[in-house]
Amino acid sequence: MEIWVQILIKSASLFILLLAAVRLMGKKSVASATPFQLVSYIVIAVLSALISANVISNPALGLITLGVWLIGIIALEYLSLKSKLAHDLIYGKETVLVKHGRIMEESMMKARLTGEELLRALRAKNAFSLADVEFAVLEATGDISVFLKSDRKPVTARDMNIKIPPMAEPQTIIMDGNILDEPLSSLGLSRSWLMTELDKLGLLLDNIFIAQVDSSGELYVDLFDDSVQNPQPKVRQLLYAGLEKSQADLAAFALQTQDENAKAMYNKNAKKLEELLRSLKPYLLN
Amino acid sequence: MTVASQVKQTLAALKGCQGTIRLYSAQAQKEEVRAVYDEVLDATAEIIYDLEERLSVLENQEPQYKGN
């Protein structure tokens, strides 16, 4: 067999073999690989390049080497999935670097980490001052995770005692002017609903690049034509304003009427509407 | 504008709001959200009932403006 045919066959079959092997190795990203994983990925890559370019002339020997590395990695990953002990042995355990705001110098030594490197990693996590850090840990992948002191953490809605309605993820229902039926039906909506909404906004399907619906059924669209102002949903604000106006009307009627019974009725209902507005506010205005 | 027609206007606005809220309640994906809307629906229904009652009294008092 001519040499170029050999190379062609080898390269093509390795191409498919590697594709399958990488799929088998799971979805972990290379960026979060532990040092050992990284080394073994490189070994596999170099080996297959050598075999494919016919540097390793005996394909059987080459395939054996490649097979050992591939099966070895997949076996290790499977083992570490099944046993915590194996996982810690193979990939190492995380190391606590800062505890109760104090740096653990011994662990730093063990991890071969200088103070400079620790500070750089902390800065990358937006902890410029060591005083802000309560706890930091060196993950097995070499990343440093930081837990800030509780008074240095970003404020959440819960801290502020603000009520926020539960929101599910929005669904994309139009892409490149095409309706995507699956997400639409997963929200329990139909094409005719979409057409009505688009009519309300005065838009044609062809003009829309992307449209999303949030969990409350509000439609957000982005148009191909960027000179046109994107129509933004306003129904909620209008509803809130309408209710507010009704509440003001009721209060005014209460002032105007001479009839004591009617005055009491108006006042009661004005108060009731005020309470409703308060409970609706997080849902309608946000 | 008579008092009756003012009340009628507010009543109509409230009914419009009620319709929109009913729509939201039907569209709501989460049980929690739907419960809030349903509660609001009940309360607005009570207010609307009171206003209708008052409106019929007003129209009795000023029959010459009935229907305005």
Strand content of chain A: 5-15%
Number of strands of chain A: 8
| Shape call of chain A | flat
Average pLDDT figure of chain A: 87
Query: Low-confidence spans of chain B: pLDDT under 50, at least 5 residues?
Result: none
**What level of helicity do the residues of chain B show?**
over 70%
User: What's the SSE pattern of chain B?
Assistant: HH
Describe what this molecule looks like in 3D.
The complex is a heterodimer of chains A (286) and B (68). Chain A contains ten helices and eight strands. Chain A has helices at 3-24, 35-52, 59-82, 84-91, 105-110, 115-124, 181-186, 191-201, 235-256, 260-284; strands at residues 95-99, 102-103, 133-138, 144-148, 171-175, 178-179, 208-213, 219-223. Chain A has a four-stranded antiparallel β-sheet. The longest helix of chain A is centred in the C-terminal third of the chain and has 25 residues, at 260-284. Chain A is flat, with a radius of gyration of 32 Å. In chain B, helix 1 (3-27) packs antiparallel against helix 2 (31-61). The longest helix of chain B is centred in the last third of the chain and has 31 residues, at 31-61. The radius of gyration of chain B is 15 Å and the shape is elongated. The chains are: A alpha+beta (286), B mainly alpha (68). The interface between A and B is medium-sized, with 31 and 30 residues.
